[in-house]
Design goal:
Structural class: mainly alpha
Largest sheet: 2 strands, antiparallel
Strand order of the largest sheet: 1-2
Order of helices and strands: EEHHHHH
Distance between the termini: 54 Å
Oligomer: single chain
Strand content: under 5%
Helix content: 25-40%
Shape: extended
Radius of gyration: 23 Å
């Protein structure tokens, strides 16, 4: 097995398929695994871009390199009613069970918590709402020099 497909329970690469029960699969991707997210990425791009007339592919403006051109950014929002597929309460119960199973999984050495998608961002957002956005000292000093030149108040 190519490195990057599996790791053992210490987080080291596992390349012997006969030892697969001694580790876990990693999210697949790249040349070795066949770009497993490529199809989903393309479909999302088509829904958010092409379907609604927004930029897609070579039309996308890299706003890190070009901050003057209109980006024509598209969005796609999908609303799914779980009740359309069956019992919504049962769906919620199954999702809750899955979340508990994921959070209760055995952790690799040194891993304190298993995070679900969005949890780290939410925790950071809550912390920043409470304490503010951290700013590196060199940036703060630079902005305060500019404020002095413009004769406006310094940042705290």
């Amino acid at each position: 097995m190519p490195p990057g497909w599996m790791i053992d329970f210490q987080g080291k690469p596992l390349t012997d398929p006969k030892r697969s029960d001694e580790g876990m699969l990693l999210p697949l991707g790249g040349m070795e695994a066949g770009f497993k997210g490529y199809g989903l990425s393309l479909v999302i791009g088509l829904l958010a871009g092409t379907l609604n007339g927004a930029a897609m592919g070579r039309e996308v403006v890299d706003f890190n390199k070009d901050d003057r051109s209109v980006t024509n950014t598209g969005h796609a929002i999908v609303a799914i009613d779980p009740a359309a597929f069956g019992d919504a309460h049962q769906f919620r119960t199954q999702v809750d069970r899955l979340v508990r199973d994921i959070r209760g999984s055995k952790r690799l050495p040194g891993v304190e918590r298993i995070w679900l998608p969005g949890e780290q961002s939410q925790a950071k957002r809550i912390e920043r709402m409470k304490s503010g956005i951290p700013m590196p000292e060199p940036l703060l000093a630079s902005l305060n020099r500019l404020a002095a030149e413009l004769e406006i108040g310094k940042l705290a």
